[in-house]
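C4-dicarboxylate ABC transporter substrate-binding protein, Mycolicibacterium murale. Tokens?
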Amino acid sequence: MHRPTTHAVPVLAAALGLVVSGCASDDAGEGYAGVPIRWIVPSSPGGGFDTTSRQMEPFLAEALGTTATVENREGGGQAIGAQVMLSEGGAECTSIVTHGVPHLMFSYMTQAVDFDLSSFAPVGGISIEPGIVRVMNSAPWQSIQELVDDATARPGQIKFSVSLLQSNNYIALLQMERELGIDLNIIGYDGGGPSRTALVSGEVDATHAGVFNSLAIADDSRVLAVSQPENRWPDITNDAPPINEELGIELPPNASNYGLFASAECRDNNPERYQALVDGLKATLENPDYLAALTELGEESKVAYLTPDELEDLAQQSQDEIELLLEGNPNAFSG
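Tokens:
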């Protein structure tokens, strides 16, 4: 896996103009009473997990009546951040992690780690990131069909970046290769920020990324296709067509779901704090000020709340699907 060095540019809540009151509600966060929280992000600064966590941080901290510090712990196919949460404060509910489905499943199913799905307690789903194909404005292709035609004529020559080789974005490109009979040069990076930087710097020719987490480069790039049955985000995706509609194929919908996770020990041994996290997340995603801040960024439609049970069901379904993929090609997701 190629991991370039990039300059970290954290997206701070203050820079987004997020303003919250300094007081928590009287009945919020009773399990914390000012105990600070480490909010672990398992990827580099500037990626989707990082940006989403920093957007939410002041609102969740307010709901819990405490403070939260976002901490990037990238590496290890996003396993390091998960492990840090579990081993450093996880049992006391003083560490939480933003992770994704299927990213979390890949982190323990494709490498040797000492955790699995049962190690985590879902707090709730946060948002959805539909997959898209994005290229620079100067790219020679005006449509996804032109890109596919070029990839057919030049096998292995078109470089695509993805946030990891263990992500929904990588799955989407593998499915494209298989369905279309093309060969892409897919390069995995250590997070969405470096993956998009690779596109802007000219290190790669295209990227498969999320609708919302790639908005930071929207002025310099354009979307060729949306990896969904319909484009419900035309204003922020250049009104790009669904990939199946443009190419006349039947690829499955592609997206990642962002969720907040605590440790299973937190849920089992500190039920009051765990419930405070569950209630605080729901309150955050319903907070009018948070939603207004997202609206200013054009990101309000990414919010997709899931209850802990719904997120756990989604994670189990993803694990089952990945097991089938690995049975067919056990080395497909190795770096």
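The chain has two domains: 37-128+255-328, 129-247.
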